[in-house]
Design goal:
Quinone Oxidoreductase, Chain A, domain 1; Rossmann fold; 18 strands; binds NADP nicotinamide-adenine-dinucleotide phosphate; NAD(P)-bd_dom_sf; Trans-enoyl_RdTase-like; GroES-like_sf; Enoyl reductase (ER) domain-containing protein
Length: about 375
């Protein structure tokens, strides 16, 4: 391989389990004046990665991958606040047919600084013998890769959809329901809701995760398998339950979130998979229904097959406001990354990671792999 080329993962075009990805050789890109070039160390897998091909949102040959951490190796002339050698974690819209080069499962990527967290202390790499790692302050490349897309997903929901007041005291007495507290998104949403915004937090998850989610800041954890889970939540929260955050976002969970919310106070319900009011059995007049997509943080329009989601500066402003409030809490360890499960076959682990996500074999953890096999 010459110095100008690199290994990268792209869609094969197949939707068959374990046949989604191919390793290709591609040029190492040069950053524009407003971009960074990042040399990858660790990657995290996300459901959106397999959905882009299985749900038909992405294109054959588009590069895949939405979360990476690594080292900055070049900085565009107009970029402030970053330098060569910085350790960073960031997300991008991988698999996007309109921007097929943006997928991050490659050795080098040009990236948008506004979607990037710079870690002032140097990050470490976990040892080859580590296969599981607990929720911790971000001090490793693996932890930095895990957190990026999830935290800024919460950002679009909390700072744009809910438009939460940055002053914690203004949110006192209000409750948020985070449906799916053990999802990669939910684990961060619980911490952000409690520690950054001062909300009371109720969440749903399998019983086995109760003590972990309480340790992150959940005031109450309800088992979503219980047939009377909505009654339990309503009894606990009453009319204070004014924010509903559906991090699972299927028709069933969207209806459950709606049913649990207050019957009278003004409330907002937000989901992550473009569900609207039409699929609700009992829409409520006091509830505003919203949906969030992390990629709007860039301000650009997003297209998923026939669905066009219009971007704009309001999403960028919400992202900035959230970034300024929450990234300091990540840097000082108040907000921890998710528990990690490390796969050790380098870029070769990506296919396994997407298969595990697709087959619902992931629970309260983020799947991480690195560029090369760990010996
Ligand atoms: N719009 C966006 O920008 C955006 C961004 C990120 C993710 N997403 C979407 O959001 C969803 C979550 O992504 P993720 O990566 O956070 O998920 P994930 O970590 O892959 O989700 C796995 C978790 O889902 C939980 N779960 C499954 N069914 C549930 C139910 N009915 N009620 C409560 N919890 C349930 C499981 O809980 P237990 O193990 O406790 O049973 C498991 O811990 C995906 O559909 C993804 O595509 C959208």
């Amino acid at each position: 391989m010459s110095l100008q080329t690199q290994q990268a993962l792209a869609f094969t075009g197949s939707t068959e389990d374990k046949k989604l990805l191919k390793l290709v050789s591609t040029e190492i890109p040069k950053p524009n004046s407003d971009q960074l070039l990042v040399k990858a160390v660790a990657f995290a897998a996300n459901p959106t990665d397999f959905k882009h091909i299985v749900f038909g949102w992405g294109g054959k040959d588009a590069f895949v991958g939405s979360d990476v951490s690594g080292e900055v190796v070049a900085v565009g002339d107009k970029v402030n606040g970053f330098a060569v050698g910085d350790h960073v974690g960031l997300f991008e819209h991988g698999g996007d047919p309109d921007h097929p080069h943006r997928g991050l499962f490659k050795e080098y990527s040009v990236v948008n600084p506004s979607l990037t967290i710079r870690y002032p202390s140097k990050l470490k790499t976990l040892g080859a013998d580590v296969t599981e790692y607990p929720a911790s302050k971000v001090e490793t490349f693996e932890g930095a890769a895990a957190l990026s897309l999830s935290i800024f997903t919460v950002g679009q929901s909390f700072a744009h959809s809910f438009d939460l007041d940055s002053d914690k005291t203004k949110n006192a007495g209000k409750t948020v329901l985070i449906w799916g507290g053990s999802t990669a998104t939910g684990i961060l949403a619980i911490q952000v809701a409690k520690k950054a915004y001062g909300l009371k937090v109720v969440t749903t998850a399998s019983k086995k995760h109760e003590s972990f989610l309480k340790s992150l800041g959940a005031d109450a954890v309800f088992d979503y398998h219980d047939s009377d889970v909505i009654d339990q939540i309503k009894k606990f929260s009453g009319e204070s339950l004014v924010y509903g955050y559906d991090t699972v976002s299927d028709e069933g969970t969207w209806n459950s979130v709606n049913d649990a919310l207050t019957e009278s106070a003004p409330a907002i319900a937000d989901n992550l998979l473009f569900l609207d009011k039409s699929v609700l059995k009992n829409p409520k007049k006091n509830v505003k229904y919203t949906k969030a997509i992390v990629h709007l943080a860039s301000g650009e329009d997003q297209q998923l097959t026939d669905l066009v989601i219009t971007g704009g500066q309001e999403f960028v402003a919400a992202h900035r406001k959230f970034y300024e409030k929450v990234v300091p809490l990540v840097l000082d360890g108040t907000i921890k990354h998710q528990p990690l499960r490390i796969l050790h076959d380098g870029l070769g682990s990506a296919e396994e990671a997407l298969s595990l996500l697709r087959n619902n074999k992931v629970s309260a953890e983020k799947l991480i792999f690195r560029v090369s096999k760990t010996e």
